[in-house]
Design a protein that fits this description.
Elements: H1 2-25, E1 27-28, E2 33-34, H2 36-56, H3 61-97, H4 104-114, H5 116-121, H6 123-153, E3 167-171, E4 180-183, E5 189-192, H7 200-209, E6 214-219, H8 225-228, H9 231-237, E7 239-245, H10 253-264, E8 269-271, E9 277-278, E10 284-290, E11 304-309, E12 312-316, H11 322-331, E13 339-341, H12 353-359, E14 363-366, H13 378-386, E15 390-393, H14 394-397, E16 400-404, E17 409-411, H15 438-454, H16 456-467, H17 474-479, E18 485-486, E19 503-504
Parallel strand pairs: 5-6, 6-7, 7-8, 12-13, 13-14, 14-15
Antiparallel strand pairs: 1-2, 3-4, 3-16, 4-5, 9-10, 10-11, 11-12, 16-17, 18-19
Length: 506
């Protein structure tokens, strides 16, 4: 019976293939079947024959029983899986809820109840799984509680803020001008002002001697020539990071020259004003605390910078005068500093008593050179001395360098001390003059008249020599003790008066 069924199936399959060919080609010449209808009839006949053959194939009872048994075991396995899963789900839920202390006991009871159906099937395995789950949850809960307790009771440890390295602050000797070079512990560079026009080479060479390749922050405190005169050369000679200048202009050639150098390097100028924090070094805090307002006076528009490293601080004041100082006090800014750059070269217009009291410095630096302004004045020197502030002066000590490790400040020079005379600026004492007798007076008068008669021609000659005085540059003027030169003075020239204000080498 089985063989007959196989033969019928094979013949029907061959017939279906041939009938398909006949449907495609339209006829089967070798079987003498023409037309697609006959081919279709053959296909249907073969298909019926195929079904008959399939029906005659005998079915093995053992195969059926195996299939049924495998299906039954599969159903049992799936039911077991579902049962185990259903029992594990509440346990996992209980574990998650066990972190809430109020429900821990209830959750354990639920876990024990859920173990019952599983324990009957696999008591050892499921009991271990459950106990491990509960133990783990309790361990996690305990560790979380510890972390929470540590967070609430013990403050989070932060990186150490102990200063490392050294900060160097150079007060460069630029004569009657100002320039300060700051080199941070990480080697970042900030330059505040650059002295006069004739000091530009000196400033550039000084920076190169200190190994400066780039000036990360450049600040022109205000447009006066004795502060920004050398900055154009600095811009030309070094890579520059950011530039800050107050929002006040000047029509001088010095100011125009600086702007030209900045423009040639496609650099931008940021406005210097109170409230700006400068990014120089992660260990330093550099803040601008002035100008607080807008002023018509260039000196009061000076950028004032406070630099803090660890417990040490420096205050750079430019030419800020009493009006700006008062506004700084009113702003509530922290003015306390260890080292004060005395404002406006020690002029009476700056370093007011209230401002000095707020700063309360240990050291004071006066950037000053030979001048006819009387800088620094006796009043300011006395004000500093009364507060026992150690004074340092460029005109008496040259370049002055302060070094800080964040806790202690050392200097390259000993402090300057005023002479023991009554005032600092008093010239050398002249001998006391006694009142002469009448006879002596008459003789003295006759002598003076005769001497004046004889000295007339040399005086004229000396005057003519003064008219022909020529100074190569402002350095020569200062060395001769004639700075500043006013228009009409011997040796004055427009070449020396670069900003055209009628005062040369100021």
């Amino acid at each position: 019976m089985e063989n007959t069924a196989v033969i019928l199936i094979l013949l029907s399959m061959v017939g279906m293939i041939l009938s398909l060919i006949g449907l495609i080609k339209g006829n089967l010449k070798f079987l003498r079947i023409s037309g697609r209808k006959n081919s279709l009839f053959l296909l249907i006949s073969c298909f019926v024959l195929f079904l008959v053959g399939g029906a005659l194939v005998p079915v093995d009872d053992a195969t059926v029983s195996k299939t049924n048994s495998s299906q039954g075991s599969g159903e049992i396995a799936s039911s077991k899986t579902e049962e185990v899963t259903s029992n594990k789900v509440p346990a996992a839920t209980d574990t998650g809820e066990a972190s809430n202390g109020d429900k821990a006991a209830n959750n354990k009871q639920d876990s024990a109840n859920n173990k019952v159906p599983v324990t009957q099937e696999k008591p050892v395995e499921n009991t271990v799984d459950k106990s491990e789950t509960v133990d783990n949850s309790e361990t996690v809960d305990n560790s979380v509680d510890k972390v929470v307790n540590q967070t609430t009771e013990t403050p989070v440890e932060r990186p150490s803020t102990t200063p490392t390295g050294k900060l160097k602050v150079h007060y460069i000797d630029v004569g009657q001008g100002a320039s300060q070079l700051i080199i941070s512990p990480s080697g970042k560079v900030m330059l505040i002002d650059g002295g006069n026009n004739d000091d530009e080479e000196r400033v550039v060479n000084y920076l190169k001697k200190q190994g400066v390749k780039k000036v990360d922050v450049l600040i022109g405190t205000h447009p006066d020539a004795d502060h920004i005169g050398g900055l154009d050369a600095v811009v030309d000679a070094f890579d520059i990071g950011s530039i800050y200048m107050p929002k006040i202009s000047s029509n001088t050639k010095t100011f125009e020259s600086l702007l030209t150098s900045i423009a040639n390097k496609n650099l931008k100028v940021s406005t210097a004003k109170a409230g700006i924090t400068l990014k120089l070094d992660d260990q330093l805090t550099v803040k601008m605390i002035a100008p607080v307002n807008t002023y018509n006076d260039k000196n009061n528009m000076s950028a004032v910078i406070k630099l803090t490293f660890g417990s040490n601080s420096f205050l750079f004041t430019g030419d800020a005068e009493a009006e700006s100082e008062q506004d700084m006090l009113s702003s509530g800014a922290d003015l306390k500093a260890d080292v004060l750059l005395v404002g406006h070269h020690g002029s009476n217009s700056s370093t007011s008593q209230s401002f000095l009291n707020a700063v309360n410095p240990k050291y004071a630096v006066i950037q000053v050179g030979d001048n006819s302004y009387g800088h620094p004045t006796d009043r300011i020197l006395k004000r500093l001395a009364d507060k026992k502030v150690k004074i340092y002066r460029n005109d008496k000590q040259g370049n002055i360098i302060f070094t800080s490790n964040g806790e202690k400040i050392t200097t390259s020079q000993n402090e300057w001390k005023a002479p023991a005379t009554t005032t600092v600026d008093t010239p050398v004492d002249t001998p006391a003059v006694t009142k002469p007798s009448s006879s002596a007076n008459s003789s003295t008068t006759s002598q003076s008249s005769s001497s004046s008669t004889t000295d007339k021609s040399p005086a004229k000659q000396e005057s003519s020599q003064e008219t022909n005085v020529y100074y190569k540059n402002c350095t020569a003027v200062r060395e001769a003790g004639k700075a500043p030169l006013y228009k009409g003075d011997p040796g004055y020239s427009s070449k020396l008066d670069r900003d055209g204000d009628g005062v040369a080498c100021e």
